[in-house]
Amino acid sequence: xxxxxxxxxxxxxxxxxxxxxxxxxxxxxxxxxxxxxxxxxxxxxxxxxxxxxxxxxxxxxxxxxxxxxxxxxxxxxxxxxxxxxxxxxxxxxxxxxxxxxxxxxxxxxxxxxxxxxxxxxxxxxxxxxxxxxxxxxxxxxxxxxxxxxxxxxxxxxxxxxxxxxxxxxxxxx
Length: 173
Fold this sequence. Notes:
Elements: H1 3-21, H2 30-36, E1 45-49, E2 52-59, H3 62-67, E3 79-93, E4 102-107, E5 113-120, E6 134-147, H4 150-153, E7 162-163
Parallel strand pairs: 2-3
Antiparallel strand pairs: 1-2, 1-7, 3-6, 4-5, 4-6
């Protein structure tokens, strides 16, 4: 390869790479957007809510909790995500970048239902300042998001217990 060809190739690489990442409409890089807009997969865990078996993902880190169920286009009727915190506190959730309507169930440190909110509305395309906030009535240590209608279908009420395998709970339990 001649020196001139090598110089041309080296100078062209950044432009070729950038053009490969464009979505074809002159918009943002699609490869980067696809990664950022992909739903997270945390692995499934079998649990029980009252008498009902569920399959859930468990969000433990701040990054996992912040992303939650964003960008997910489907969720089985017995699937959801449990948000785990170290101590009880009043919780507030929003539906930023969430395509699916959801129910949320709040639990005490003993995994008993303390509060629930049905029918949280999807938040895709809504400016952050206009997104509704969904706040627990009191302190909770865990929150479980399920497909909208699950609270009613599973007849969840305050006092219903969630059974989670011990390795997935905070160490102080």
